[in-house]
């Protein structure tokens, strides 16, 4: 069920909540487009819901906050508000959602919300208009309801008025109790209840839920966000661009005269997406010419004064305003300080006002001579607007609303694309082309400079540059596909997957990609991510550090994988006699029976006694009966390493791995001097914004050094390590030779072997059909973070902060992907589909062999 289309007629420019959610201000247009929407929804197998009956378009307040009033009488409602709803009913709409609006012109003074009115919901909608489908209330927790009615009484009143589905009451248990009481007391008849139940069951039957009630999760990624759908969205957004006025002929511009462009983003501080995609595309089309600035409702006057000096003399000033209608915002009006700034800027430089939200903004700044309406704030609209303002795409939209008193409905200037900018945009490829990413087999020939490479540069003094990468074509990979991957990563950052991303890709022993994207933090002015940005690796510690140490000791005969853990840690088994049978191998395979974790940072905040607590811990299940991914098991493995070597865990790793490979940025507890290069993680209540300290609280109380988490590193360092791991544990000499593709953190005059090849192959082999785990490492299963095209022989791991490593020996391919997706909150899960898409894209860039979807 989708709660669309919005069939409100937006006849009031001051409406703060309908606005661009409506199709327009003309009832016939809204009806026509509503019908088309319903036909498309039904063709796609969805149940559609027209809203908000009897009409929410002619209001001045947000019903999420208080009760709006529509003063129209029945004749006016029939002529305007009811027109689209009658059309939808004729079209066979499945559901209609109510409006929390007062209609005194029909119900008289002190009229209740239409949601609670039998006159509207039963007499007019059911009897007069003949609607027989499901009536949904709008959310009953909105201010328009909660201000005057309790949660329980509101639910009963809505049902009595004619609703079938009570949506989001303010107190769900109270609403249920009140409905039950109303039925049992006879206030609501059994027949009335049965009528609503019958309608719901009828809709379920119509879509076949009594035959097939599940959907294929595997099919979701093939449909939702597919390349064809994204391409259609880009096309629609581009064709919707509407140039309302252009008094000075600023669009399309002469690209030769755009040497200095100031792009000003106005948005709320919480709107992390605003401007990011716009500025990425704009910067790609006008390399080196764009200065981006962000302001908002809290920007002080002094900043606007300074910004006026910045825009003076610019070849173009773009004022990009993100004010979409949002529930609870209460207003889509520009604050006075920005109005004054916009008017002043228009007097100092050629200025274009771009609305990425409320289309009525021009009425507040009539001094601006060029006004482009992009209709939305999401990435597709940002891309289309950026292309439109520089002439990379034609402009041909027309207003579906009027902007009183300046412009009427139907207005819109037509502008052709500038040939130079259109060609530049086509070469760069602003959006990800899935057809290119998922091409299998040899791609068409691409000129080596078609998309260009960034100029050589030093990253934080680190002597690695793109010039030292191997030409992808020399190792059977397609440069154009990798360039499209760059565009995808930038787009994902604009969609708040993380503030920044670092990527390293290698094939056949050569490095073909080593780049940073985005920023260390969301804050304006944060430094850019580079290959030497230091990331908290989280659970990659388990494989990069702990598993590597165990592998070295096992090869040297100093540790037996099948020896009981208690042989190395006296007393480890005391909390449960079954622990005496747990082996080192069991810990590596997560089959020890230990629980996943315990909040030792709560019970032992100073870290004292954690080891004793683990020794005293009972198993959750018997050993080797179940795979339970356990941080506690890997804490234990680090203690085993210390017991065997007689050295601190971090000291052993430094001497045996980091120092021989020259990985000076890899280790626990980053040096304070590296702070400017450390990507911050989560904003927490008690620790503030975590930066340079381990994100994992249990590792934190252990001094930042643990077997399950705590390691920090960079894409550049991990590229060297992965080169060693995928080349039999050995790396050759290196000296930063241009085009060599040899990952080289520090110059090496001789080959170095850090991990023996025999144990490496043994450790990365899947343990058996019952588990995806190898020894320490993981292998692909289900909707793996490795995507769908890394083979079943692949091995890798992920980290909670948004990090991952995956290796495919069949493709001779590896990927290091580092993000700080937990900044500002661990609730951000956009990295999950992002990570899959990146690995699919890298696999699809393999051009010299067929890349097949991995069998489940």
Q: Strands, helices and their partners?
A:
Blueprint (H helix, E strand, L loop, with lengths): L26 H17 L5 E5 L20 H6 L2 H10 L3 E4 L5 H4 L10 H11 L5 E3 L6 H4 L4 H11 L10 H14 L4 H17 L10 H7 L3 H14 L1 E5 L14 E6 L9 H10 L4 E6 L5 H11 L4 E6 L14 H11 L4 E5 L14 E4 L5 H11 L29 H10 L5 H4 L41 H16 L5 E8 L2 E9 L16 E2 L3 H16 L9 H4 L15 H5 L11 H4 L6 H6 L15 H15 L3 H13 L5 E2 L14 E2 L3 E2 L7 H5 L9 E3 L1 H12 L3 E2 L20 E2 L3 H7 L31 E5 L3 E6 L4 E7 L11 H14 L12
Name some characteristics of this structure.
856 residues; six-stranded mixed β-sheet; 29 helices; five-stranded antiparallel β-sheet; alpha/beta; single chain
Write structural notes for this entry.
34% of the residues lie in helices and 11% in strands. It is an alpha/beta fold. The chain has a 6-stranded mixed beta sheet, sandwiched between helices. Strands 11-10-21-20-19 form a 5-stranded antiparallel beta sheet, sandwiched between helices. The protein is globular. The two termini are 30 Å apart. The model is unreliable at 427-467 (pLDDT under 50).
Largest sheet: 6 strands, mixed
Overall pLDDT metric: 88
| Percent in helix | 25-40%
Which residue ranges are poorly predicted, with pLDDT under 50 across at least 5 consecutive positions?
A: 427-467
The assigned structural class equals alpha/beta
Q: What does this entry show, briefly?
A:
The protein is 34% helix and 11% strand. The protein has 856 residues and is α/β, with parallel strands linked by helices. The protein starts with 26 loop residues before the first helix and ends in a 12-residue tail after the last helix.
